[in-house]
Amino acid sequence: MKKTATISRRSILQGAGATLALPWLESLALATDTSSQQGPPLRMAFLYVPNGMHMPDWTPAKMGKDFALPPTLQPLAPFRSQLTVLSGLTLNGARALGDGGGDHARSVAAFLTGAHPKKTDGVDIHNGVSVDQVAAAKIRTQTRLASLELGIERSAQAGRCDSGYSCVYTSNMSWRSATSPVAKETNPAAVFDRLFGSAQGQSVAEAAHRSRYRKSILDLVSADAKQLRGRLSGPDRQKLDEYLYAVRDVERRVAATPEKRHAHTRQLGFARPSGTPRDFAEHVRLMFDLICLALQANSTHVITFMYTNAGSNRSYPQIGVPEGHHHLSHHGNDPAKQAKISKINHYHVSLFAYLVKKLHSVTEAGGTLLDNCMLMYGSGISDGNRHNHDNLPIILLGRGRGTIDSGRHLRYPRNTPLTNLYVSMLQRMQTPVSQFGDSNGRLTDLG
Predict the structure, then answer these.
(1) How far is it, in rounded angstroms, from Cα 416 to Cα 376?
(2) Mean pLDDT, range 230-256, rounded to an integer
(3) pLDDT in tens, 425-447
């Protein structure tokens, strides 16, 4: 009988009040029954951007491998061979289907579920289970965290946000059940604690001791790390050192952010850093560093990330766009407004390229961490002015552990469900399904 994969004692470093998951190391894999045969695990992540795209600057002109990168996707040029552009996919659940306005709310609620959310701003919300949670439920025994839900703007649990739709729909894209959204974490310090706190949770006394003496997570696991290094090959020792350096770097940046006193820290007489940068780009990059560490250490294999909530009217003066994003998306074919939308789209992709570069820099089994990932990036709206949900802006980064023939632009027939992509991704994630949401098959030509 095939053994069920579980988290091994040797896949983590432990110390007083701390647990540090390890990256994939060949030296450790060779000491197990199955890891050396299977190699590094496959990971998946879903990244959402609001308000659609300026599609002329997003969509490549040619199909297949011989396509030129359009302006919006230029930041991904160094990783062109890992990029798959998917045109023609449709999110039918985000359409009105008789419910009138509310395209922004539906574009998020349906994005990972493929469902048509019930139009309500009360407690009787109803949507569907999201693709990330289907995968997380299947492979949860393999990692400390079944999944990780992240973002820059907080999730809402109530309120009226979009034409009669609850704010729950506009700010949550991960759903554990039809009535239970999974709120995202926006505080990098809280994410760091989830990734590197003790398996049982750090006690108040342990937290006080660590803060009082300014102890790093690495200080707490140093003895275990030293013992492990003696068992590793030269390349694995270097990989471990690089990983520990990355953890220390993120820890320092989290600690350098403004402090916020919590109830239990006031009682102990010390302040805990909130870890939320005021600068948007630094906030995103710090979250992406944490995503990289989480995937590298196999703390989880499933992650979702929202740049902002649906219909966000955030302005971007740092790139010369002082107007609100949502306001600009209703451009009325004004070339000046369209140019600014394109500028925002390019900015978001440039931040995404930061994550891609980080993943590409991590070596795994003769390849890179990016090779063993499927990163889906896109929006549940195509043109923000039309609020249409067909021909969506969707891309994949990564080779899916060799199962994706990347470096291509693929165009699918009109009204091909976006959920067909999710069936293809789930089948690669040890989650064999034949149907998900409104899917009518899978994207057989991915690889």
Answers:
(1) 17
(2) 77
(3) 999 998 989 999 999 999 989 99
Distance CA 119, CA 129 (A): 17
Cβ burial 204-231 (10 Å sphere, 16+ → b, else e): eebbbbbbeeebbbbebbeebbeebeee
Can you tell me the distance from the alpha carbon of 57 to that of 70, in angstroms, rounded to the nearest whole number?
6
Beta bridge partners of 191: none
pLDDT on residue 253: 78
Residue 205 lies in a domain: no
Q: Is 97 inside a domain boundary? A: yes
User: Has residue 202 been placed in a domain?
Assistant: no
- Say if residue 97's pLDDT is above 80: yes
Q: What is the CATH number of the domain that holds 281?
A: 3.40.720.10
- Quick check: is 15 in a domain? no
CA distances to 15, 20, 297, 395, 411 from 248, in Å: 16, 12, 14, 32, 43
Domain count, the chain: 1
> Among residues 268, 251, 243, which one has the least CA distance to residue 217?
251
Q: Do the beta carbons of residue 336 and residue 313 sit within 8 Å?
A: no
| 77, 95, 156 from 122: Cα distances, Å | 45, 21, 13
Residue 69 pLDDT > 90? yes
Boundaries of domain holding 114? 40-186+276-446
**Alpha helices, DSSP H only, in 140-261?**
167-171, 188-196, 204-212, 217-220, 222-229, 234-255
Per-residue pLDDT for 10 more than 50? Answer: no
Per the CB < 8 A criterion, the answer to whether 86 and 418 are in contact is no
Three-state SS for 149? strand
Which tokens go with 207? Answer: 């937290």
Full-model pTM: 0.85
